[in-house]
Each structure stands twice: as structure tokens, then as C-alpha cells.
Amino acid sequence: MIRNYTPVFIAYNTPQSIPTDCNSIIFINLGTTTAIIENVSLAPSQSFVIDGNENEYTTATLQINFTGAGQNNLVVVKKIF
Fold first, then answer.
1. d(Cα 57, Cα 36) in Å, to the nearest integer?
2. Radius of gyration of the chain (CA)
3. What is the pLDDT of residues 26-48, one digit of tens each?
């Protein structure tokens, strides 16, 4: 069975807790500072992917932070059914 999904794009520039509520999530650091998702550091231009398997859905809340001087810009792409 084919299921439809919606890609959701959100940009963050301040430290905060973010809800996942999705099957798959991608973090892309488009800023000039280091972005930190929980304990994973992303240098500028790096990305980090958390993929779910078929029929999986996460409801975790993740903490994001930024370190260093410069521009904070973490783009998050969620795959939501």
C-alpha cells in the first residue's frame, strides 16, 4: 500500500527543545556556528539523518544548541505521514 507523506521544513536559530513527531528527520547546519543536537555536533555544512523503518514513528523531543560566534541556522526536514 502506498502511503502519502508531507515533508516539513523548519529553520531554527536559537537553542530550544524541538518535537520530532515524524518517521524521518534530517538536520542541516547552514549557519557559521556549530550546531549541537543532543550530543551530536554539526560543523557548518554538515548534516545528520535519523531514518525510521516502515511503520515506525518517533515522538522524541530533542535539544538543539549552538556554539561559537557567527550565524545560527539549523534547518530541520521532517517526513510526516
1. 22
2. 13
3. 999 999 999 999 999 999 999 99
Domain of 19, CATH number, reads 2.60.120.10
User: For residue 35, what is its C-alpha cell?
Assistant: 550546531
Instruction: Give me 22's grid cell.
Output: 515524524
Query: Into how many domains does the chain fold?
Result: 1
Single pTM value for the model: 0.94
- Out of 1-5, 39-43, 46-50, 55-59, pick the least confident: 1-5
- Domain with 15 in it: 6-80
Q: Which amino acid is at 12?
A: Y
Question: Within 10 A of 14 (CB to CB), how many other CB atoms are there?
Answer: 9
Scored b (16 or more CB within 10 A) or e, 48-68 reads eebeeeeeeebeeebebbbee
